[in-house]
Amino acid sequence: TPDSGEFIGYDVHTGQVRGQFLPDTDIFFMHQRCYRSKATDRYLIPSRTGTEFIDPNTGHWDINHWVRGGCIYGVMPCNGLLYATPHSCACYMEAKLYGFNALAPASSARRIPKRIADDQRLERGPAYPSLASGEGPGEGNPDQTVGPHLAASSPSSSEGGGDDWPTYRGNAARSGFTAASLPATIRRAWQTKLGGRLSPVTIAGGTLFVASIDTHTVHALDAGSGKKLWAYTAGGRVDSPPTVW
């Protein structure tokens, strides 16, 4: 039943109740996920709040609210694993799994990783300092960090820095965050008319980039004055902010 979580099993030939049971653990329901429930020869996987494994023989519930699948497709039990696809679910934002995952049951053949302190969970590679500062893998060399047009038109492009916004929502993590300081009172510095439907902008090395979606054109402007530096017409629609690398 949808509210109590009770499962009732019927004989398909007679309609007689063959078994019924309530959850044996504390649960709560939000709403059915946006995909169909699944089942294996051992478990029911109703996908109510997350991914629940329910043993119809014992009535035991194993709940995993933090495992979601993509809309329509959902999750796939197969090969002794549970495959969970990338998804856009907005529930459990701080705990849910991201990306494509293959989950396995606990086994003595697989050693559980030791607990790692929070300050040791991230391993920073040699490129981390330059990427964190916004300079890119070339560590400030304009021939490696930006395209040829930017290097030629913006001498300051080799500086990089935390004020840049080189990709959609600021960085690869799509955080939408910048460490740049803003004044309490903001005024318009300049305005330029490009026409057409425009993408969000990106900024790097003193140059602002924006795409004119329906005309297949990428525009580069001086970030300080709005002066048009160059434009490039591509062979198809450019419907997202240009990424500067």
TrEMBL record:
UniProt domain Pyrrolo-quinoline quinone repeat: residue ranges: 187-244
Pfam families: PQQ_2 (PF13360)
Protein name: Pyrrolo-quinoline quinone repeat domain-containing protein
Region Disordered, residue ranges: 115-169
SUPFAM superfamilies: Quinoprotein alcohol dehydrogenase-like
Biased composition (Basic and acidic residues): 115-124
Organism of origin: marine sediment metagenome
Taxonomic lineage: unclassified sequences, metagenomes, ecological metagenomes
